[in-house]
Amino acid sequence: MASLLAYGEPPWIFKGSALYQLHLVKAETARAFIPKDCRLAEAFGYTLGGFFLASYDDSPAGIFDELVVLAGLVWNPPTYCAWAARVLVGSDEACLHGRKVFGLPSQVGRFSKKITALPQTPESKTSNFLSTIGLTASSSSYRNHMDVEVREIKNQTAMNICNINLNATVSQQDSKGWLGPFIKMSLPNLSGRTKHNSNLLKYSCQIECRVRAVRPAKVSGPSALDADKENSTENQSSNVESGTKRNSSISVMLSKPILALEFNHMKMRVEAPTTVAACSQNTI
């Protein structure tokens, strides 16, 4: 309870940077996370999911990283809302707040980052065209590759979830670099129906930031050896359902990316969630 009080009163403000990556996710994979009385938005057997990887340098819980795995879109009039399959946060306080207040499937995570500078490869005609219209970074002679290894901490055991390879040019860190236009946007979300908060909840993230389209990050799952160890741990703890959902959330991360947006100088305002009576079963 002390951790919840430390967050203070809403709205809660988060500042930092993020990558918002959209994927085509198989509807059958997404349905494992969506309440039965909610309608998943799908077409040709797929829905729109992906992930939101954020690094906050100022927040009610201080400095921490967050990975939100988005299973898909759910229809709730008058709009579609994102549904989180799994949330990993590098803060015990943020984890507790997400569970109790927002009914999110939050887990404490460990984020390990490694940056490597590699020579810039010759650009293709497509890359040159994207650079011309401002959808790629400038012509720096070398490019920074950041590998983010995300592990879930459970029962004092670290379980590998995924590795995310981000491409970032040197000019990105230069204030003179083009970081895209300043925009304001709202990301509506549905959550809840968990053991920590059984209500169906709706909330939105009001974001102000500089945004630009970038090449999608490359995501890889845990190695076969890690997977075997984790499955063994799950069997021993009789927590098979939790392991199954974790594996399904990894499948979401490994699905086909279609668009990646980079948020810089981000300010995200989050109001307290409101209770929703039920999802709409009707389509628009």
From TrEMBL:
State where composition is biased (Polar residues): 233-248
What domain of life does the native source organism fall in? Eukaryota
Family matches, as Gene3D superfamilies: Acetoacetate decarboxylase-like
Where is the region Disordered? 220-248
Instruction: List membrane-spanning regions.
Output: none
* InterPro entries linked: ADC_dom_sf, NDX1-like
Which PANTHER family does the UniProt record give? PROTEIN NEOXANTHIN-DEFICIENT 1, PTHR35467
**What's the protein here called?**
Protein NEOXANTHIN-DEFICIENT 1
Query: What is the source species?
Result: Anisodus acutangulus
